[in-house]
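Hey, I'm writing a tutorial for new members on how sequence and structure tokens pair up, and I'd like a real worked example in the thread rather than a made-up one. If someone can provide the structure for the chain below, I'll link this post from the tutorial.
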Amino acid sequence: MNFLRKTLDNIKKPFGKGEKYERFAPAINAFDTFLFVPNHTTTKGAHVRDAVDLKRTMVTVIIALLPALVYGIYNTGYQYYVQTGEAFTFMDAFIHGSWKIVPMIAVSYIVGLTIEFIFAIYRGHEVNEGYLVTGLLIPMIMPVDIPLWMVAISVAFAVLIAKEAFGGTGMNILNPALTARAFAFFAYPTYMSGNKVWVSEASNVDAISGETILGSLAAGNEVSYSFFEMFQGSIPGSIAETSTLWVAVGAIILIATGVGSWRIIAGGIGGAAIMGFLFNLWGANALMSFDWMNHLVVGGFAFGIVFMATDPVSAAQTNRGKWIYGILVGIFCILIRVFNPAYPEGVMLAILLMNVFAPTIDHYVIEANINRRKKRWATAQIKTA
């Protein structure tokens, strides 16, 4: 490690203050702080003293994402081989999935980090760390056969419009990963919906049909999958959103490390469960009759509520606000699923909607706390008078 430290120090010398390449210092410093804890501390303004910096927080989220990603890679190959009827092994399925997904991850990071580095050099600040997670989330929530150039354009849109336009990491109003998916959904709808986009090679092989469970229900068709299959994730869907089991493992990691808010997760599950149960009592169509427990384990609900609704920048910040925010995400997710047959997923739009209202929720929570304190103070003054 000492050798690596000395090597980096030598490389950084031409980028130091007053040196020839000072302007490009943010780019080289990004590699340094990714490998080592930053050697500087805050000297003014309000700050938190902690051994864990933002990069290490993002690495924790990436670790939590890995179980769902690895299963998603395998499930991509599994869905392909099951539907074509070919004999296959675990490694066959994993290799097939890797050939599809790894290039998407590479494109996401290359395009996104290039834009991040350009803005960091132009503005003269350090490279924002938030894209370490966003760059992995974007391909994980996309259909498996979306063209790479569409991934690249969606990434560029998300980084430029949802992030850099607001000042970078910590300033964005909307979740960048969901913004990328929303852009792709509205810009390239035929590649983001239908029964040919969720299973590898479905558009090229007549024998393959990759309709999702929610898509089938929206079309009035019956679903043959068991609850265990839906919970495990051996179903068609976005690359890494199908397995609630492995998403739950990631949720445990986030909650145990204090990175993810358990209040938002619990609130989202509660809101979706209550709304799903109420629709079960009504039962006017297939989506309303779909058991409320099944609503929690299909589509992108679990993945969205764990990894994107808990985004510490775009989510509510107060404890009570987190409960309200999470509950409303769950409620709106089921409402959109049931009442919008053209878009039976729901969680993406629900989270983006609540991203917009998160500051308002926090504002009224704080105002309510101030008013309660004023009343307690007034009551105390009367008693002492």
